[in-house]
């Protein structure tokens, strides 16, 4: 968390399903005196209206964040029940933004219908240089509607690092200030104009610093993005 703040990062995304994550984030943010500097996001991940309310209130206590910056319906679990609560809480100022999440491409159709019919502020979904289905419809829709986008699984669960293990970065990656494979993969995502933020998970400070480097310097243009895809697909 110190590394995140030191390089200008702000977003921390959590969930009740991530073990002790919410409590750890809240405790450390308080101990470090950085809670106000962070944009905290978490999720509701249960069924039933009252169960959802109880869980969200518990999350806000654990993360010591009120109002919560972003509350998301995790993997669309019982979303029709939770959506009215989130909309009401936003009106009352208990949360600043509301959103929906998923991590598989088969959910995009449902997500798009919600984006078209409900006043959501954020979506969170999977997107990577080797998993590009989001480019077809849902990312353009988000951009058209002004919906912010968080990206999960940017490294395909580590598969991209296994794919490139032992290989050197192409020399032309220096043209967009890329210094590692991690930055190569993240810069591809960040250069999509619909994307707001990428949320790679790590517990190692040096990985945090490297990840944050993807937000510095140049980003690849459209021609270079296509070149990146061809290069990785051919490995």
From TrEMBL:
Pfam families per the UniProt record, alphabetical: Aldo_ket_red
Give the NADP-dependent oxidoreductase domain ranges: 1-223
The record's listing under InterPro entries reads:
AKR2_Oxidoreductase, NAD(P)_OxRdtase_dom_sf, NADP_OxRdtase_dom
Protein known as:
Aldo/keto reductase
Q: What is the lineage of its organism?
A: Bacteria, Pseudomonadati, Bacteroidota, Cytophagia, Cytophagales
């Amino acid at each position: 968390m110190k590394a995140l703040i030191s390089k200008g990062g702000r977003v921390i995304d959590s969930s009740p399903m991530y073990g002790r994550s919410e409590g750890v984030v809240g405790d450390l943010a308080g101990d470090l005196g950085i809670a106000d500097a962070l944009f905290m996001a978490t999720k509701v991940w249960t069924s039933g209206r009252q169960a959802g309310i109880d869980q969200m209130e518990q999350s806000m206590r654990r993360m010591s964040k009120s109002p919560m910056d972003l509350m998301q319906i995790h993997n669309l679990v019982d979303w029709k029940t939770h959506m009215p609560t989130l909309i009401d809480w936003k009106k009352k100022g208990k949360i600043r933004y509301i959103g929906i999440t998923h991590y598989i491409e088969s959910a995009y159709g449902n997500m798009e219908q919600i984006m078209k019919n409900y006043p959501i502020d954020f979506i969170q979904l999977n997107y990577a240089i080797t998993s590009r289905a989001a480019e077809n419809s849902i990312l353009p829709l988000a951009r058209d509607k002004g919906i912010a986008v968080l990206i999960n699984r940017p490294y395909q669960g580590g598969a991209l690092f296994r794919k490139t293990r032992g290989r050197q970065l192409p020399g032309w990656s220096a043209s967009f200030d890329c210094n590692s494979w991690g930055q190569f993969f993240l810069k591809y995502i960040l250069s999509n104009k619909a994307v707001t933020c990428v949320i790679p998970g790590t517990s190692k400070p040096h990985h945090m610093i490297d990840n944050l480097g993807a937000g510095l310097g140049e980003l690849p243009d459209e021609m270079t993005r296509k070149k990146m895809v061809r290069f990785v697909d051919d490995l």
